[in-house]
């Protein structure tokens, strides 16, 4: 479970225990000397020499027992941010093979773990990390200083004009106005000092935890908050280090695990929202010439899209250089009401239906009057009965979405009011899939399709693209733009209301037209949310069954302590009936969960098999295709994330989906997930 894929790892991965043992052996060769550690005992050398000496008994580790309740700490894979090559040496960083690196890692991780409940304290202790080690261990071991502000928001100064400064540990001092301007000069001088860069080490370990697979130790928002607090705690130095780290990781994203790339753009968009959305985008202008699904291009696009969610379209647009405007739609995303034009044959019916919905006409009347009229018009044109149902469904869903497009509460109110009508029109699998497609197509941006060419550096309408002899790799095509936030939330609510089901959502995700969106976060967020909802239903029913069983046991114990009556017999039967009903519900949702996961893995395997077969026919290398890169990466992530659910129907999956006829590259993932399920290895490296 490495951040980098095995075949593209920029450095050799060493097991944590093996690495620690080699560090200890090296420490023994050095006479157990660790220069970075403080040695206060040296001040008492003469006293200690005269003190009574004690012989310590030999310590032996007790053997592990299967019956023991002891919990062992699992080693985490090492993540290197700054030193790529194994033989790289830097005067600014401890080498990962040294015991000093292990000590720093241990202390930094302890601070992160202990102060998870308070991000401000976590940042304060990390900024003061140098206090725990010998002087000159770190080149940047200087408390950050900020001016003390008065009630008017201006720095407090003395009669001589000196400004009152305070460092991160609370120590106050006086500095002249020119001294404040000279702080940057001091920062530049730090590069010439000997010692390690403390903030480089801190950022490396924070990123290592945030990108830890299969999941980070804490929620991702904690790491985002901690990094933001560190920027505020030392606004002079830490933001520059973090910017270098972001740029370093950005240039490696094509080597990383897909889930790590997703976490990066999720964190980065959140971080930018805390600091005015300011970033030097021009440093990444080379990404404008990359293919649409290249991870670097996707990271920029997804970061901007999430920032639009966190702010608003015009705000983000003003922060971008002109050449990066191709990474966002030309206009704010909006709705696409199919029956807007008066020339549409069903414009009148849709207009009437909207008026009826605004007047809150009962659902039965809507179904009786308007929808029957829509079907009648379709029948007059010789449309088949199934197509008549599709037309009525589309008119209703489009009008419901348009009426509720102002906000989430508006659309939910309309859906709840006409829930019975929506459910009656979605009784088949085909109908539910059709509804998902209608919802997805409604929130599209109807702006003109534009092409951004890095060669010409300007936006041109699609119908004029023939004027330029450019390849797809040199353009960024915005065919349409969903309001993905609305789409994801509404599909979630329709799943709750049982208007659509998980199978229909998954079928839509794996349709051919969605392949071009494999590098977009919204698609996989919807998939994960759908799978999590299925799992949540099973967990809820299990909880109800446990509660019902507990109630029965308590009532039965009470009945056994007294003489049974006819009422007690009836009460016992009611308790048993309740348990039986919950058990039936549990069987139903468990069966649904199995069908959903079987469907997901079947579609993943079919998709990857078809892609690999196509590459073989064309004689192409699949590793050079970014669509395959995303599909294969998300396949790994889904298998890895839901390994506990896979364990419940392992035999069925192996006999139905992951057969011997499957491509070895797909089967290799399955075999490694089986190892993870069996818990034979603490750490599994998934290619």
Automatic annotation (TrEMBL):
GO BP, one annotated term: mRNA export from nucleus
Annotated coiled-coil segments of the chain: 538-565
Gene Ontology molecular function, alphabetical: mRNA binding; RNA cap binding
Keyword Coiled coil among UniProt keywords: yes
Segments forming domain MIF4G-like type: 94-322, 337-451, 485-646
Keywords: Coiled coil
Pfam families in alphabetical order: MIF4G_like, MIF4G_like_2
UniProt key word Coiled coil: yes
InterPro entries, A to Z: ARM-type_fold, CBP80, MIF4G-like_typ-1, MIF4G-like_typ-2
Record-level GO cellular component terms: nuclear cap binding complex; nucleus
PANTHER family named among the record's database cross-references: CAP BINDING PROTEIN, NUCLEAR CAP-BINDING PROTEIN SUBUNIT 1
UniProt-recorded name of the protein: MIF4G like-domain-containing protein
Organism of origin: Jimgerdemannia flammicorona
